[in-house]
């Protein structure tokens, strides 16, 4: 009896284990977004450091697994953080209000780091593309502030893992680091404002749906 049960159990486990298949997938993500203290240059010759609270990022990607190791995807994401205060470099913190928003359009290369037919599937990725930074009614008092936006370039890297829950659905989590290039704005008085660069960190939950099986 045992000799009959063992092959049957093995066959059941194999049939329940999702098999890898090349093809398209759709992924959705969302989570917390942190932007560290950011240097902003106001004219004439005023350098300030802006501080923000923890915000959020949401987005999605349409991708394709080329083989068991490499995949590619086109991704769009939107993030927002609130500006809480600022300080002139070397001075005290002063209250501020408004929001900083990120719209990212990225092309990503995704690299599988484990068994693509396993239940837990670690991966890493790199990407590059365009980012629009919007400073939404940033008010630093005294009638001064910024309400403007600008497009620039951005690069990113991420590391995460998926857990297969069915033949075509997986859930997971990942960490993302994004580096965003210089942007230029105009303040309420028409004077130039520039941000040298922005870094962004996010922890995201991911839902992935594959159209040709897992």
Give the topology.
Layout: H1 2-16, E1 23-34, E2 38-42, E3 46-52, E4 55-65, E5 70-88, E6 93-95, E7 97-112, E8 120-141, E9 144-164, E10 169-180, E11 183-186, E12 192-195, E13 198-210
Antiparallel strand pairs: 1-4, 1-13, 2-3, 2-12, 3-5, 4-5, 5-6, 5-7, 7-8, 8-9, 9-10, 10-13, 11-12
Beta-strand percentage range: over 45%
Order of helices and strands: HEEEEEEEEEEEEE
Residue windows where pLDDT falls under 50 for at least 5 positions: 1-17
CATH class identity: Mainly Beta
Beginning-to-end CA distance, first to last residue: 34 Å
Mean pLDDT: 87
The CATH architecture would be Beta Barrel
Helix content: under 10%
* Structure summary, number of beta strands: 13
Number of helices: 1
The structure class reads mainly beta
C-alpha Rg, in Å?
22 Å
CATH topology call: Porin
